[in-house]
Specification:
The complex is a heteropentamer. By secondary structure, chain B is an all-alpha fold. Chain B has twelve helices and no strands. In chain D, helix 4 packs across helix 6 and helix 5 packs across helix 6. Chain D starts with a helix and ends in a 16-residue tail after the last strand. Chains in contact: A-B, A-D, B-C, B-D, B-E, C-E, D-E. The complex binds adenosine-5'-triphosphate (2 copies) and magnesium ion (2 copies).
Chain lengths: 346, 299, 493, 349, 337
């Protein structure tokens, strides 16, 4: 087996970003009039700056509809950008057109939220994989069949599955097929968009362990999107918390859940039900409504729902504030809260 | 390696075989519905009649149009099962020969319309930009234009004849396919698998033909089947106005037209082809319906 | 008391109600609303003409001017009196508009009013003016009260005639009424229908049904195959009469193989006249002899006829070098014309026996005609045509159909060229007024000249027929006025 | 403890040997075969299990909501004195919504998109609560419409929805998934039903809103004595709010027990696998999972449907379906391993 | 909504301009000799030449086009019919009401009947009744319209004698109670002039042509309603409403129907065009003096101003009908943006 490991394993000593986003905006026109300006914009990605370090698995959590998928798709240039820059391995790719983007496509892949919908129902697994393999220059077209089998074996599927159609697989298997497809192009970077949220825990565990194995084997970089905090810790070393189109906190995953620095992170954490009947707890309830992405609250987007808000929060948007290397938080009063221990568990 | 490959080929064969079995099962289930089976039998018989017209019609030369003046306007009898027309030709033979143009023409119209309309619909559905809008505007233009008028006008230009009738009908027909396909494409193009293909960096044409086309084929095929009836009727309508098939050939519509003035006395001249047309169209309809149900439930 | 109202289910629509312009199927109504100075009598009458708005006419010796004495006491529908002024006004208006059949007045120099009831028409050449004045088109007299009104005025449903009926309730494309004009000079004593509702009915089948259901007294065209049942019907009957309409097949003389006179003759012999008459016309026609139909002045049995004779046709073809045929011909006919559609296949079927393949094309009349006129080289091989004369002198027919039209053919769709023929018919035309017998001989000679070259096969002279209710009496048919029901003469028993 | 109490009471809902077949392209699919369980007053029963194991189908067949043309249901569903499966439509109507109500899996698609939320809730209020409308009308001296609005507002506030006035005027497409789900829950609670079936009722919510709903459920369960059948993937929820847990695998309940028992001593190999796969905050070692594939329901494995994936497969497993055996006080499991020795056996997977 | 209407309206104008351009050049490419047609009868060459100049046919096509468009846009002048020699616009104004009466009733009954039959058969889904409806609708959409019209005449006039054969009104009434021309709609005209005898007679005459026109659309609408409703009835929200204890009839007629109606409305919009087409044949067979009758005559005689006028009119009707159904769809279905 000739593993297509082209990059020599980098020592994690010098973490350098594989992808870096700078003030990225991706807005959608909500009511496009016949002529004239768009009146309302939906702003699922609103001024995001973030580095994804080579070889890491970055988690992205946040409530449903806050813009996680859009961010993932924006990085892969699957959704039109409004402004900002994206660098991939140092190359700016935010303004490349479709053909200029072609060489980058195989290197960045995505596993979509809904595995069934992301596989063409009229194509069998072989064709699905072949389609991606064509883009992998290192594989001779003659060997596509063997390569497909190899990919399937990577994701724990058997050769006879090659000739089946997506609908003949269970959700978890479909998810694995899309992972196989993502791997077929020999990518450096994969976005997992809630790749496990539709699955039951057993199947979810299956997919996650697969992801981890592959990451080690092929030294891949992941962006792992989910709104389930419990699996974040399993999968990711670093986690970004997203709220209403913005990233409010980035931290080391263990630290994040032990000692959140942003009130929203804390609220999320409190609301997670723990699968242990002996540790029944009062689930934290976040008051207020999910903000509209078209007109997010002024100042800190989270302030209407924050227990610790002060006047400043309503007026001024907090700037990111570095707490550790590669970690930062966007809250005016995070230091104060930290000192008070207001966000600690009781 | 080589062994592996033969192994894979074997596996492919096995999988294909199984797949075919499933298809066969679906077909059987479809035919188990009595009406669909009956419709299919009628259609097969009609096809056979059209194909083997010279051999199965009692008076093939009359079927082709030779007049038989001595036996004009005879009612159905044991010599002429369905009677004779104003030129004394055997109605049965005429109807059998008439099926040729009706059925061939019908198929020709819908297939050509699909061949024109489907790619345009795919393109227009996938590119909602200038080209797509343009196509849809043209489609709307055609749809808003009375199709019978188009048909007639074209027949008038090219001269009446069964082939011009067919051309004249294809022209107002294709926009319906474009419309159907465009709608379907718009509804599936945001599916994740299309996005996945874009993620891989494939261009429009690849996506259109590899990903969109196979997924809209079912409604198109059903529409083709359901359209065959109307197409046969449409040829008949043009012929009815004297703009379609020309003597001595005949399609069913023309025969109804020719027989209509006699309907009070020699009713069989119009009723026989009219009924034939009605039965075949209904058969296409029922079969198309059944196929639709079968295809819908299997995906 | 006798019924005074009747329904006429007519397939003949109205294209214009302007009597100066009218040149189409509205004739049937115009002839009941308007009147001409004189009228041609049906064949077999003792007199050639009968007098309508004129009471007498006389020609000068050289045939260059004609004096008409006019009827007194005639009123127009608008209430004014009919005088010589009206005659001058009408003819000049027609000439001025120059539409429709206005060409018939082409040889008229001027109109002189002698007194209120005498008028003199002066000609440029000695053409037969009475025939022209009796024309079915463009010779109607209308009230000077029309003034400067154009066709629009008429087309709103107005009329200004002297005829027994006036137009009422005109709904184009649906129905209109010919209502009794109370002041008609002929008076309303005796038996006359007084109001005629014309129902414009295109579908022959509907006409038949209306007739059988007694919803119509008179109809225009019904399915031919129903004639037997009409004749047998309790209430219905068919009245036959002569007509000057005939069907012909033009051969394209500019292109092989039809540029060969032998081939043309062979085809003329191969046309199954009898079958055509029996099936195509349900017996309601006879084989034509030449361009001029039998019964019309100029139509005599002296004109050569080509009888149906396949053997002869075969040998002629062989002589021409086409043993067993082996060529293809296209035949066009007017798709609107059910009659042609009916017999065209018979020709096709018969020609097949000679080994000639005929492709039949039914085209809208106007398309067919346009294609024939465009370029003889690419035009059809055989062109079926229905013809009827505008006025009852053969010249119009002979001239229109066969005189050399150069490279812009209009009616000569055989593209036939024969200078001596052209000369002969013109001479006959200028002779006819003064010496009808001599002219007749010349007309016959001219026709035989044509027959020898066989550029056209004369298929059938049609007989006029009126399917109608048995109770309808007094129906007069006059072939000079095709498809005109003279309602004034009709009455219901 | 809770479970001892429940055993003494009469069950609110009793399902016996429920089997459902679907007609599919590949033939009859045996989606459910022999589902047995009961629901007691004031309890919350969690129904967990693999994707496609038939949880939603079970829920729907309780209320006879499966399309009759496509499926056949056999067995018994006893509610009070009636077997719901044999009840006439008219009688079912009186039970559906009034006595047993249900929240569907996909919140947005289970709201009629062409009526405003207000229209839909007021129709149900008129159906369920005519008395209350009257009393509100008397109390507030207001019109009928007003009264209905008042009730609607009150009920929607209960599930944590704010800005109700706007909500009542919007259509399904105009509200977020979370709002839609809470709205559906409010509808289901409108009639104060005896039984609430919640099919993944919180899966579209983010954790914070979910927490609110879970709290609410617990409240009504206690206050109004409503029994809740809570279908979920999230074992965390099961652990936090449910009294008992039923584990479903390929059309059968394979294990049912009080929550604590299930988490502490799972018996069935599948349950054990499932529990191991639950991610926990702070857990470092890799998650375990049940290997193998979901069985094809048109062609299910003979005998115990789990046997192809089970490490303890015995001969008998391939031949016969394991019956439900009691292995403890109100703890039952369908596995031959426990035929003789009702001790949980750690199954290595 | 106003924006939408404005958009549709500009769309209509653009469509009509495009349509008239298309039809103009199209008809001019027809091989007929327009001038000769205009003269009629046995036209003589010099007359034809004169008519050509009168009609402006001697000018280059572009000039003709400019002239045509100017007249069309600024004077609603579509030229003079070559056949009737009257302004096409006037002709159309006269004919439209007559056809409209047929189309209106046909559409009304096809819609009401179709939806009703569709709902009932969906409600009784799978029963013999449903099967019968299925056969009936299959037959309805399969029967060629001209054949149907002939059969109707044969059965209801010739055999049963229940309905009149043809025309708008009995002939004898045209003598005694002629329809006054006020609006052109005979039903309205007879009503406002108090001509009740004619009114009922006209109604009676409409039965067969309307029946011939409505059978096809009725079948289509019934089928579509049925299948669309059946699909809707499987949706979660219906299931959910059923689970809330809503009774079945309410579920079908109130909850389901409104959801199912959107595609049905689209088809009703399209049916307008279909019915208009069908009037070509029906009016001919039933001798109904409407637009179809006029169009057919126009086509057969290559009366291009009339053809253009009809095309424009049918196009406009199509767009208006579709706009109306679109608006209706928006009203009943807020999902459509
Ligand atoms: N193509 C688009 N056009 C308009 N709005 C869009 C588009 N794609 C996404 N949105 C909007 O952007 C917002 C964020 O969507 P996104 O899918 O990124 O959320 P998410 O965080 O992934 O949510 P979930 O957890 O439910 O997947 C949503 O409100 C959505 O409606
Ligand atoms: N209408 C239907 N026709 C055919 N098969 C069906 C139908 N509805 C459900 N099924 C099948 O029944 C099985 C059980 O489905 P069900 O929806 O009950 O699963 P579930 O346990 O609720 O899964 P999930 O956790 O994904 O909601 C599945 O295999 C599904 O494919
Ligand atoms: Mg997402
Ligand atoms: Mg479910």
């Amino acid at each position: 087996m000739s593993a297509p490991s082209t990059t020599t394993a980098h020592a994690a000593s010098m973490p350098r970003p594989l992808i870096s986003l700078d003030r990225l905006h991706a807005w959608f026109a909500y009511d496009k009039p016949f002529w004239g300006k768009v009146k309302t914009w939906i702003k699922p990605v609103n001024n995001i700056s973030l580095d994804i370090i080579q070889g890491e698995c970055l988690g992205l959590v946040g409530e449903s509809g806050c813009g996680k998928s859009t961010l993932g798709r924006a990085i892969l240039r699957l959704t039109p950008l409004t402004s900002g820059t994206i660098q991939f391995q140092g190359h700016p790719i935010e303004s490349l057109n479709a053909s200029a983007l072609k060489p980058f496509r195989p290197k960045m892949q995505m596993v979509f939220q809904d595995p069934k919908a992301s596989l063409n129902p009229r194509m069998n697994v072989l064709n699905i994989l072949k389609e991606a393999l064509v883009l992998n220059r290192e594989v001779d077209p003659e060997h596509h069949l063997e390569e497909s089998v190899r990919l399937l074996s990577l994701v724990d599927l058997r050769p006879e599955h090659l000739f089946r159609f997506p609908r003949e697989f269970s959700g978890g298997q479909q998810q694995r097929i899309s992972i196989a497809r993502a791997l077929a192009t020999n990518p450096r970077f994969i976005v997992f968009d809630e790749a496990t949220s539709a699955l039951d825990v057993s199947v979810q565990a299956q997919v996650i362990s697969l992801m981890k194995t592959l990451q080690h084997q092929l030294s891949l970089t992941y962006l792992f999107i989910s709104h389930d905090l419990s699996i974040m810790e399993q999968v990711c070393a670093r986690v970004a918390v997203m709220y209403a189109g913005q990233i409010v906190e980035v931290q080391d995953s263990t630290a994040l859940f032990n000692a959140p620095r942003h009130p929203y992170t804390k609220a999320l954490k409190d609301a997670v039900p723990i699968a242990d009947p002996l540790h029944k707890k009062d689930l934290g309830v976040l008051k207020g409504e999910v903000p509209k992405l078209s007109s997010p609250p002024k100042g800190c987007h989270f302030h209407p729902r924050c227990d610790f808000r002060q006047d400043l929060c309503q007026e001024q948007e907090p700037a990111p504030c570095e707490t550790d290397p590669n970690s930062w938080v966007k809250c005016h009063f995070h230091e104060q809260l930290w000192k008070q221990g207001a966000l600690k568990d009781h | 390696m080589a062994d592996n490959r033969t192994l894979y080929t074997d596996m492919a064969r096995a999988a294909a075989r199984e797949h075919r079995q499933v298809r066969w099962f679906e077909l059987k289930r479809l035919l188990k519905r009595k009406s669909a089976g009956l419709a299919l039998i009628i259609l097969c018989m009609t096809f056979a009649a059209a194909l083997f017209a010279p051999w199965i019609s009692p008076y093939p030369e009359q079927g082709r149009g030779d007049v038989n003046v001595e036996h004009r306007l005879l009612p159905p009898s044991s010599d002429y099962y369905l009677g004779t027309d104003i030129y004394g030709r055997d109605m049965l033979s005429r109807v059998i020969f008439g099926s040729r143009i009706s059925i061939f023409g019908g198929i020709c119209i819908v297939i050509s319309a699909a061949l024109i309309g489907v790619p345009l619909g795919l393109w227009a559905g996938y590119n909602e930009g200038v080209s797509g809008t343009l196509i849809m505007r043209v489609v709307e233009l055609f749809l808003s234009f009375p199709s019978t008028l188009i048909g007639m006008a074209i027949s008038l230009i090219l001269g009446a004849g069964w082939y011009t009738a067919i051309i004249a009908l294809i022209i107002p027909w294709w926009p319906w396919y474009t419309r159907l396909v465009q709608g379907e494409v718009v509804s599936i193009k945001h599916m994740l698998y299309v996005e996945a293909a874009r993620m891989l960096g494939y261009g429009r044409l690849t996506i259109i033909f590899r990903h969109l086309l196979p997924n809209i084929l079912t409604p198109v095929i059903v529409m083709i089947l359901l359209d065959l009836g109307p197409a046969i009727i449409a040829i008949g309508l043009l012929s009815f106005l004297g703009l379609g098939t020309q003597a001595p050939m005949a399609d069913w519509g023309l025969m109804v037209w020719e027989g209509a003035p006699n309907i009070l006395n020699e009713w069989w001249i119009a009723i026989v082809p009219g009924t034939a047309m009605f039965i075949v169209v209904i058969a296409f309809n029922i079969f198309g319906d059944a196929l639709k149900d079968a295809l819908d439930s299997s995906t | 008391s006798a019924q005074k109202n009747m329904v006429y289910a007519s397939p003949y629509g109205i294209t214009t109600l302007d009597p100066s312009v009218s040149y189409s199927t509205e004739l049937g109504y115009m002839a009941n609303i308007y009147e001409t100075l004189i009228r041609v009598n049906p064949p077999g009458s003792s007199e050639l003409f009968s007098f309508v708005l004129a009471t007498d006419f006389a020609a000068s010796d050289d045939g260059m001017d004609y004096t008409f004495k006019l009827r007194k006491g005639v009123k127009f529908h608008d209430g004014s009196d009919f005088t010589a002024q009206a005659v001058k006004f009408s003819i000049e208006r027609t000439q001025r508009l120059g539409k429709g059949a206005a060409f018939i007045w082409g040889d008229l120099k001027e109109i002189e009013i002698i007194d209120d009831y005498t008028v003199k028409l002066i000609l440029k050449t000695p053409v037969p003016l009475p025939q022209i004045a009796a024309s079915a088109y463009a010779s109607y007299i209308m009230s000077p009260g029309v003034g400067d009104n154009g066709s629009d005025w008429f087309n709103k449903g107005m009329d200004a005639g002297t005829g027994p009926y006036t137009l009422k309730n005109y709904k184009d494309g649906e129905s209109w009424m010919l209502a009794k004009f109370p002041d008609y000079w002929g008076g309303w004593d005796g038996n006359h229908v007084e109001n005629i509702l014309v129902k414009y009915t295109k579908a022959p089948l509907t006409q038949l049904q209306m007739l059988q259901a007694e919803q119509a007294m008179l109809v225009g065209r019904i399915p031919l195959d129903s004639y037997a049942s009409i004749k047998k019907g309790k209430n219905t009957t068919v009245l036959y009469g002569p007509s000057y309409q005939n069907y012909m097949a033009f051969f394209n003389t500019t292109r092989p193989p039809l540029d060969n006179v032998k081939v043309r003759k062979a085809l003329a012999h191969a046309i199954p006249y009898k079958d055509i008459i029996n099936i195509g016309f349900n017996g309601n026609a006879s084989q034509a002899r030449g361009p001029v139909p039998q019964g019309q002045f100029g139509g005599t049995t002296d004109v050569i006829q080509y009888p149906h004779d396949l053997e002869l046709a075969k040998s002629l073809l062989a002589e021409a070098g086409f043993k067993d045929g082996g060529f293809k011909l296209t035949l066009t006919y007017a798709a609107e014309n059910g009659q042609e559609a009916r017999f065209a296949p018979l020709i096709q079927s018969e020609f097949k026996k000679l080994g000639i393949d005929v492709e039949i094309k039914g085209l809208a009349w106007n398309t067919q005609w346009a294609m024939a006129k465009k370029d003889p080289k690419t035009a059809q091989d055989i062109f079926l045509l229905l013809w009827w004369p505008t006025y009852s002198d053969p010249y119009e027919t002979l001239y229109s159909l066969l005189h050399d039209e150069g490279d812009k053919p209009v009616w000569n769709l055989a593209y036939y060229k024969n200078p001596s023929y052209d000369k002969l018919i013109r001479k006959a035309y200028e002779t006819v007024g003064a010496n009808p017998d001599k002219a007749l001989k010349m007309y016959v000679d001219a026709q035989n000249m044509i027959q020898k070259d066989a550029p056209v096969a004369w298929i059938a002279d049609v007989r006029e027929n009126w399917p109608m209710n048995k109770k309808l009496k007094g129906v007069v048919m006059n072939p000079a006025y095709p498809q005109v029901p003279f309602f004034y003469n009709m009455y219901i028993e | 403890m809770d479970n001892t109490r429940t055993m003494t009471e009469h069950p609110m809902l009793q399902i016996k040997n429920l089997a459902v077949d679907f007609n599919t392209a590949r033939g009859q699919a045996h989606i459910l075969e022999g589902v047995d369980f009961e629901l007691f007053p004031k309890e919350i029963l969690a129904l967990v299990g693999e994707t496609g194991s038939g949880k939603s189908v079970t829920a729907k067949s309780i209320l006879c909501l499966l399309p009759k043309s496509l499926s056949q249901s056999t067995g018994e569903v006893w509610f009070k004195k009636d077997n719901l499966l044999t009840l006439s439509n008219g009688k079912l109507q009186k039970i559906r919504g009034h006595q047993i109500s249900m929240v569907f899996q996909n919140p947005q698609s289970s709201i009629n998109p062409v009526f405003t939320l207000g229209e839909q809730i007021s129709r149900l209020i008129r159906l369920y609560l005519p008395d209350q409308i009257e009393s509100v009308m008397k109390l507030n001296n207001c019109s009928r419409k007003k009264a209905i609005d008042t009730i609607a507002e009150e009920r929607l506030n209960e599930v944590g929805l704010t800005d109700v006035q706007r909500l009542l005027k919007s259509y399904a497409g105009q509200v977020s998934g979370g709002m839609a789900q809470r709205y559906r829950i409010a509808l289901a609670l409108l009639s104060s039903p005896k039984i609430l079936i919640a099919d993944e009722a919180t899966s579209a919510l983010d954790v914070t809103v979910q927490a609110h709903i879970l709290k609410l459920m617990r409240e009504i369960c206690q206050k109004k004595k409503t029994a809740i059948l809570f279908i979920t993937h999230d074992l965390g929820i099961a652990a936090q709010i449910c009294n008992r847990v039923a584990v479903m695998y390929s059309g059968r309940i394979v294990e049912i027990a009080p929550t604590e028992d299930i988490f502490k001593t799972p018996y069935h190999p599948y349950t054990q696998g499932l529990l191991k796969a639950v991610p926990k905050l702070g857990q470092k070692e890799a998650l375990a999972y049940v290997p193998g594939m979901i069985p094809d329901l048109a062609n299910p494995p003979k005998g115990c449907r789990f046997h192809p994936r089970c490490t303890y497969t015995m001969d008998v497993c391939r031949r016969r379906k394991p019956p439900m055996t009691a292995v403890g006080l109100s703890h039952r499991v369908a596995c031959f391993l426990y035929d003789n020795h009702p001790k949980p056996r750690k199954v290595e997977i | 909504m106003i924006l939408f209407l404005a958009k549709r309206f500009t769309g209509l104008i653009l469509l009509l301009v495009a349509l008239s351009t298309l039809v103009f050049f199209f008809t001019r490419s027809l091989p007929g000799d327009v001038a000769a047609l205009y003269i009629g009868g046995n036209a003589k060459p010099e007359q034809i030449e004169r008519a050509r100049i009168e009609l402006g046919l001697d000018k280059p096509l572009v000039v003709q086009y400019k002239r045509y468009m100017e007249r069309l846009i600024f004077h609603a002048d579509m030229g003079v019919s070559l056949r009737t020699h009257r302004p096409v616009f006037q002709d159309l104004l006269e004919k439209i009401p007559m056809s409209f009466e047929l189309v209106f009733w046909a559409l009304l009954f096809a819609t009401l009947g179709g939806v009703f039959i569709g709902v009932i058969s969906a409600y009784h889904h799978g029963t013999p009744f449903d099967g019968a409806v299925k056969w009936f609708t299959s037959a309805a959409v399969s029967i060629p319209i001209f054949f149907l019209a002939l059969l109707l005449q044969l059965i209801f006039f010739n055999i049963l004698g229940w309905f009149p054969l043809q025309g708008r009104i009995d002939s004898f009434l045209e003598f005694t109670h002629p329809i006054a021309h006020v609006t052109g709609f005979s039903m309205i005209d007879t009503l406002i002039t108090g001509n009740f005898q004619a009114f009922f007679n006209v109604l009676w005459h409409m039965v067969l042509p309307v029946a011939a026109l409505l059978v096809g659309p009725l079948g289509i609408i019934a089928r579509l309603t049925r299948s669309s409703l059946l699909e809707v009835m499987q949706q979660d929200f219906i299931l959910s409403a059923r689970a809330s204890g809503i009774s079945e009839p309410v579920l079908f007629f109130y909850y389901g129907l409104r959801n199912a109606l959107s595609p049905v409305l689209t088809v009703i919009g399209l049916s307008v065009a279909l019915i208009l087409m069908a009037t070509f044949y029906v009016e001919m067979i039933f001798n109904w003096p409407g637009i179809g009758f006029y169009a057919l005559a126009g086509i057969m005689s290559l009366d291009y101003p009339a053809i253009t006028g009809i095309a424009l009119m049918v196009g406009a009707i199509y767009v208006v009908a579709n706009t109306l159904t679109d608006i209706l769809r928006r009203v009943i279905d807020p999902r459509i943006k």
